[in-house]
User: Fold this.
Amino acid sequence: MIVDVSPLLSGEVKQLDIDYMLTPQTLDGVVFESDAHVRGSITDRAGYMRLMLKAELNYHGECARCLAPVDGVFSLDFERTVATEGMLTEQEAEEMVDEYVVLCGHELDVDEALCEELLLGFPTRLLCSEDCPGLCPKCGKPRREGDCGCSDKEIDPRLAVLKNFFHDDSDDSKDGSN
Assistant:
């Protein structure tokens, strides 16, 4: 969304309210049920402007541990100081990208920085619960449904020979022969 901040720059108003829907970028394994609802404002604070937004996004995906369906709402608070062109050098603008959005003339594009922040802030792994035990590696049954009866102890086949080796040594020492 491009916001015309002329009323703020001229001193006509001290705050511009923002309320719109933003179409998010797609992510693998996640379905966004609707566009992100973005609300907030740009406020004139005695000579500098502050952009404050809150975005909420409904999503649907699968738990990374047990593959159960996961539905939720991702909420993001987004705040930046609005800088005019020429106020920051190119190097400063690149270094402080997390602190500033740059005003082009009388227009401010809030979508670019907000979309990037939504993408970076979205969880990389969805979980049905923080303590999800996942799936049994042998049979694939979800562990939250109870014990599947599979043995937890499994000997690495590459080391199985060592088990027999140590077992034979203990038998020799019991016989008294070395």
